[in-house]
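Support reply, case 0932

Customer input (verbatim):
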Amino acid sequence: MKGQEMMLGPFLTSLIFILLLVACAEPQTSRVTLSLQEMRFSENEIEVLAGQPVTLRLNNKDGYAHAFDLDEFDIHLQLAAVETAEITFTPTRSGTFTFYCSSPGHQAAGMEGSLVVVP
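Our regenerated output:
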């Protein structure tokens, strides 16, 4: 019985250490891929967590330029024809924010969507 009690101490210490490591770990990065094609984004709504890093991978599949703009997070990317770009950012506040293509006439043609940041 005493031997079991002696083994329990190191086990609990190890368990507490592991739990602390997990609690202190960097937040996982969410990865979202959007295709830009025929005046549309492949997804018109993206949901992410506030405070968690997000990597957006943007694939322009058209033979002409597009853009990706998310004003509230000061993101403005220009993509040449058939170009791929990535950006990583951390949304710090919750809400619904519009992303769009700022190339002339593209947003008016329906090239926009919503980033929903949940607490």
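We compared this against your earlier run and they match. Two observations from our side: The chain has one helix and nine strands. Helices lie at 2-24. Please reopen the case if you see a mismatch on your end.
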